[in-house]
Specification:
about 300 residues; alpha/beta; Rossmann fold
Length: about 300
Amino acid sequence: MALPRLIFVTGKGGTGKSTVAAALATALARLRPTTLADLGGRQSALRLIGLKATDASVASSTRANTQTESPANSDSTLDAVAITPQGELETFIQRIVPVRAVSRRMLQSRTFGYVTAALPGLEAFLMLERLREMAGHAALNDRFAVIDAPATGHALGLLAVARGIRNLAPAGTLNRLSSAVEDFLIDRNRFGVILTVVPEELALREALEAAAELRDRLGIECIGAILNCVPRALFTAGEIARLRPLEAHTHLAERRHALAEIARHARRELERAGIAVVELPLLYEETLDARQIETLSERLTMEMLVQ
């Protein structure tokens, strides 16, 4: 699976999006320095592997102060940033009004609040501009960036913002920036989306619809899908039939077998839609921590990164 410099991980709520983002960043850090970025405000992926984020608008897309060495390669590091709407808006204003006292006064004024309200999507667009800068930094410094993005619906809305801003601003700085962001989003070497799915029909339908919208409406590359929480069947249909006298045991075996069948169906449907699929196993753990993330990252290394 060919990976761009910046990988945007999204999926239906409950499909393990943050878990996948954390595991993927950990796996990539074995190869080269990697940044894990939180875009949803919860920092779930960062907490899973014990990273503390630096605000991306302060870090300017460079390494965060908190770094951890990848166990497989001491030369590779994993760091974290948080990308927030307010932080990106403040950075943008300070860029176009370099006198700090004046830019601070603008941000605090009621009039400026009216201006930002009149430009729907401005803060979201500035977050996309931050992603573009991160991808450029990653390319120049031979790095990767993994984005723990919002759930599918919000993510698709976010990715469509640049086009809307360009239509609202037919000339000037915003038009130039929005055109650059649109070019970035459709560049397969710089940007791509990974969808997370679990063996459930609703999650599968949402992933297929999201992939179609990315391709047909936005022209954005779907790198592939991570089919998460896939159980092994353990028993064949014949073995389950022989368990009939043991009613409770039979029920558990049938349930496990059915989940494995649903996972196989999901994989077939995704591949039929032209989406590459990588499976991650169901981990029978009450809570996930860095140890389980390491296990999943090792599977991703074998399935995705070893060509």
